[in-house]
Amino acid sequence: MTEEPAPALLRQIESIALAAGRLILEVQRGGAAVQNKGDGSPVTDADLFAEELITRELQRIDSSLPIVGEEAASAGNFSGASARTFFLVDPLDGTKEFVRGSADFTVNICLVENGRPQLGVVVAPARRELFSGDGSISYKCHLSNDLSIRERSRIATAVPASALSAVASASHENAATKDFLDKLSIGKKLSVGSSLKFCLVATGEADIYPRFGTTMQWDTAAGDAVLRGAGGCTLTCDGRELEYGAKRPEKKALQNPHFVSFGGSVEALRELLRVSALEVSV
User: Fold this and answer.
1) Residue 172 burial class via C-beta count within 10 angstroms: exposed 0-12, middle 13-18, buried 19 and up
2) Homologous superfamily of the 8-155 domain (CATH)
3) What are phi and psi of 211, to 5 degrees?
4) How many whole angstroms separate alpha carbon 253 and alpha carbon 244?
5) What is residue 258's DSSP assignment?
6) Which CATH number, 3.30.460.30, 3.40.190.150, 3.40.190.80, 3.90.960.10, labels domain 164-275?
7) FRET partner for 2 with CA separation of 20 to 30 A, picked from 33, 68, 104, 246?
8) pLDDT tens, 92-115?
């Protein structure tokens, strides 16, 4: 079994995400309590406990860096998103999948610097998988049953010359997504939940991921960091790089515009946006 070395900070954040994954599985085994937030979306005690753990451990790494977590933001605490450098945390992405008993839920931690997802970790505890990247290199790790890292390997995107493989949301696909994909040469279409969509593009199992619905920055930042480190990109529909952070102290400012993630270059994706008749201005 091979285990390539990873940068020290990345390893620290991997350890925190893995600890949160173990906690989530423990809560799941005992039966997670489910509530509805003000916007109608579900939240469980696993979400809350995992965010508490992640926040505590990130503060031990650097107490000066703000942390913007989904559950804290839902309670009105999101001021850190205006900082130059901060952490974005989704302690349990895919809560609906988690409640249904699906394995497609993830722990997401991202370090944002100057609007870019600089370092990200995605752990899928029920799938025994971890994905991570630091902007220049990305990894996929196979995990043991105790969620320790069993094998680590570098990953890179791989876009074919002909038909593309697309991945879309398992629970949020809409007419705009179907129309976009119908205009491209799509040979295969995959469906998966949570931030795993970014990870499938990062490993070359899929080539393109369009998202024309509501997402928040904590939903996407960690997976986007993994994808960019593997050689891919994420652009808004006007051809600009998806950015992170908020200038206004309000939750709506952390909502993403519609975007497309791709396993190839920025220039190639901009051309696909033109072909699909989406407006590209840069």
Assistant:
1) middle
2) Fructose-1,6-Bisphosphatase, subunit A, domain 1 (3.30.540.10)
3) -135, 105
4) 10
5) P
6) 3.40.190.80
7) 104
8) 999 888 988 899 999 999 999 999
